[in-house]
């Protein structure tokens, strides 16, 4: 048997609920020349049974057993048994994208770098899939043969599992994981410092589970033993950067202040009295290691906590940890504290005009009386808009005159260009004036803004702009989908191209590659048939959690001009379900055509109020029971409120009496006949019509999408 190119080290302990999916995601890799070393770290549950079943099915997998020693030592054991040219690590409750290993190894083969890392996603059953904040900062672009000294944001790359290391590099420096929690960062940062070059891949290669119960290591923020290991790990990293380049040293110190020290200070809100002094000592140990230049440039609330810690003021530390806003009475406000805060609550079309509703206020100031001016900036020229103001919830959680609505008429929208136009916000409260762009898009229509025609050839598409601003773009005669027909064998797309003799290509953004779709042309009008069965029969999804593959459509002229295909085909998805899987043709966040294929997950397409009842509807793809679920704090235990299910020609409806739902955050779940439960997906066109806000007595109910699933927040 030849030596595999890649060794995959998978330690496991008490992960019987997750390890099967993890190992399956590894087995599905498009890069097949690997061995997987499964290290049983004395697991007391049935994890080993599941692991051995995989070893019996797939000879690339083998198991190594040891007494319980912790994740770090178990990884070390796996490396000792590894034989590959490269080595990587996977935590046994996480998932690897189908192309992850291949993307990283192709980069290393091309560059000869010491290791390669890629982007990551967070996921769980309640909130779906969303970007990992840390990795989104570190892996912004494909960078080959770079180094932390020229790409200092790699300081934030503190996890070991989103990388493939060259084994010769690993052995040359003798990396060993310490027997503590937070064992990754001391190894990964040292590797960045030791490497000659590294490669970064912007595409997601790893899915990082966030458990509902919060019982994974990185979620156990408020346990003293966890905090002790966190401080030890930080000390090891700070030792490594003691003589590093100033930019690296500063970024590491600033990162620990922003993330780790902040998390530890938050523990004063829940620490039992008998452990307070231990927490003080640990927090002070980390605080004393951080550079004074970092501390003095911290937010003033953080500086208040530092001072309280050094003074032994446990009462103030407890108060700030539980309610940071309550600490404002201890702060002397300065001019820099009075910043403009905006949000975008709703983006809709009313009588042919673009309506934007949001809030604007100056932090720490009452917003009445005040003067608010909003303009749309098009190609550098500011067009002032009429502003309607109304009471809304402000930053203090109170009702005040911070709400606004502006409408942009067709004549002004016609002046917009293909480049982003943004909203300019100016607010005066007394003698204080502040100005900024409109940003702060909330869940629902601000994240999925609907577009519209303003005449026969010009389409207006709101969406994200520079630095998070809400932007407006005018697309003149775009390549577009105008209607869809559905036959038993195919989706028939009708549309119009922006150029003559076009070609249509379908691609998979996460995994690359494209296929041409034959066209029937009538001038610039086109018809394309997309066969359904070949899509359903493909069983290698790009998203290892949702098992979804997304395809995008692009039109190309004979000269090589390209445009992404815009959705202008109404406000309903088109779907085909068969054999437990479903194909959905719908829109993206930017308004373009997407084709999704996945296992059947019940999907909501409408949410309405009928008297005292909240009714959610969706296409009927099979039997399922529906319930609104809330998780108990710090637990996988949950409370379910069952819905009454009805079925009609329009699909299913899940009906609940809103009086049965207490103030909390609820998630709509569907439970199949086999007992498996999944959060109900929120279809993009429904997302573009949300939030749905209901006032019931003293309580406010808001139905909104979060990471693709349907949530109900009751306050």
From TrEMBL:
The keyword Cell membrane does not apply. Its EC number is 2.7.8.12. Residues 7-169 form the Glycosyltransferase 2-like domain. One of its GO terms (molecular function) is CDP-glycerol glycerophosphotransferase activity. SUPFAM superfamilies: Nucleotide-diphospho-sugar transferases (SSF53448). The keyword Lipid metabolism does not apply. This is CDP-glycerol glycerophosphotransferase. The lineage of its organism: Bacteria, Bacillati, Actinomycetota, Actinomycetes, Propionibacteriales.
């Amino acid at each position: 048997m030849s030596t595999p190119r890649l060794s995959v080290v998978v330690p496991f302990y008490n992960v019987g609920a997750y390890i099967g999916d993890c190992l399956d995601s590894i087995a599905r890799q498009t890069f097949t020349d690997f061995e997987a070393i499964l290290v049983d770290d004395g697991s007391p549950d049935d994890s080993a049974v599941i692991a051995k079943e995989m070893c019996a099915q797939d000879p690339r997998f083998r198991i190594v057993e040891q007494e319980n020693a912790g994740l770090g030592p178990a990884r070390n054991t796996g490396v000792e048994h590894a034989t590959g040219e490269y080595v990587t690590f996977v935590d046994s409750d996480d998932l690897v994208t189908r192309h992850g290993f291949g993307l990283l190894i192709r980069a290393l083969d091309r560059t000869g770098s010491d290791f390669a890392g890629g982007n990551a996603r967070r996921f769980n059953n309640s909130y779906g899939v969303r970007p990992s904040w840390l990795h989104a900062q570190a892996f912004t672009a494909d960078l080959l043969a770079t180094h932390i000294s020229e790409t200092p944001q790699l300081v934030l790359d503190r996890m070991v599992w989103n990388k493939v290391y060259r084994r010769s590099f690993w052995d040359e420096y003798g990396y060993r994981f310490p027997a503590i929690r937070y064992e990754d960062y001391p190894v990964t940062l040292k590797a960045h410092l030791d490497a000659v070059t590294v490669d970064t891949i912007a595409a997601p290669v790893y899915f990082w589970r966030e458990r509902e119960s919060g019982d994974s290591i990185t979620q156990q923020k408020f346990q003293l033993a966890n905090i002790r290991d966190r401080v030890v790990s930080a000390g090891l990293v700070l030792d490594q950067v003691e003589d590093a380049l100033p930019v690296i040293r500063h970024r590491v110190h600033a990162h620990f202040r922003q993330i780790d020290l902040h998390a530890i200070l938050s523990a004063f809100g829940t620490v039992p009295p008998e452990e307070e002094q231990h927490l003080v000592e640990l927090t002070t140990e980390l605080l004393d290691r951080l550079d004074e230049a970092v501390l003095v440039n911290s937010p003033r609330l953080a500086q208040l906590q530092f001072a309280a810690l050094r003074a032994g003021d446990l009462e103030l530390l407890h108060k700030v940890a539980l309610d940071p806003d309550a600490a404002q009475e201890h702060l002397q406000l300065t001019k820099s504290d009075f910043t403009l805060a905006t949000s975008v609550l709703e983006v809709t079309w009313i009588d042919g005009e673009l309506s934007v509703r949001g809030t604007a206020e100056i932090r720490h100031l009452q917003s009445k009386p005040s003067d608010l001016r909003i303009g749309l900036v098009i190609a550098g020229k500011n067009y002032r808009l009429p502003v309607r103001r109304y009471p809304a919830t402000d930053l203090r959680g109170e009702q005040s005159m911070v709400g606004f609505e502006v409408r942009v008429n067709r004549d002004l929208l016609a002046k917009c260009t293909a480049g982003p136009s943004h909203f300019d916000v100016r607010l005066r409260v007394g003698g204080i004036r502040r100005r900024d762009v409109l940003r702060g898009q909330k869940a629902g229509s601000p994240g999925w803004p609907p577009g519209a025609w303003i005449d026969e050839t010009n389409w207006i598409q709101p969406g994200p702009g520079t630095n998070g601003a809400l932007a407006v773009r005018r697309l003149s005669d775009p390549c577009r989908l105008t209607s869809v027909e559905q036959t038993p064998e195919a989706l028939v797309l009708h549309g119009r191209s922006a150029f003559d003799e076009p070609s249509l290509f379908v691609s998979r953004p996460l995994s690359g590659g494209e296929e041409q779709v034959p066209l029937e042309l009538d001038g610039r009008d086109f018809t394309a048939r997309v066969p359904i069965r070949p899509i359903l029969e493909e069983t290698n999804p790009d998203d290892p959690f949702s098992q979804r593959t997304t395809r995008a459509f692009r039109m190309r002229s004979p000269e090589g001009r390209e445009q992404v295909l815009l959705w202008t085909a109404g406000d309903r998805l088109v779907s085909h379900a068969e054999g437990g899987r479903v194909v959905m043709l719908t829109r993206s966040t930017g308004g373009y055509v997407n084709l999704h294929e996945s296992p059947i997950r019940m999907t909501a397409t409408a949410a309405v109020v009928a008297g005292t009842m909240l009714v959610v509807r969706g296409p009927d793809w099979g039997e399922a029971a529906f319930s609104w679920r809330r998780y108990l704090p710090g637990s996988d235990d949950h409370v379910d409120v069952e819905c009454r299910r009805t079925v009609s020609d329009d699909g299913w409806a899940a009906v609940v009496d809103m009086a049965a739902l207490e103030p909390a955050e609820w998630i709509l779940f569907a439970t199949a006949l086999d007992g498996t439960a999944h959060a109900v997906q929120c279809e993009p066109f429904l997302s573009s019509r949300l939030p749905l806000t209901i006032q019931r007595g003293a309580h406010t109910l808001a139905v909104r999408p979060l990471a693709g699933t349907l949530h109900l927040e009751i306050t």
